[in-house]
Amino acid sequence: MLATLTIHLHLPACASLKEKRGRIKPLISRLHREFNVSVAEMDSQDKWQETVITCAMVNSDAVTLQQSLQSVAKWVEANWEDGQIIDEKIEII
User: Could you give the count of Cα atoms lying within 13 Å of 29 in the half-sphere of its Cβ?
Assistant: First the structure.
């Protein structure tokens, strides 16, 4: 099974794409390192104050996938201080 966590983020203080990437890159690296998930910026790459990142995991157990990605989402909510979370969604395929 494959599961994805899509997080739509708002970065109100960013004034350029370079600044946005500088704030998103450490988040992506940290999520990959801490939770062993694949992470990429998937949408809104050309917008200064908005981005969509997606985390992906593969496992044979849907419950494990759901719990793991919920942990990732909770970590982002608690630890990411560069903006606000607009939306998040977990999908299991």
Answer: 6
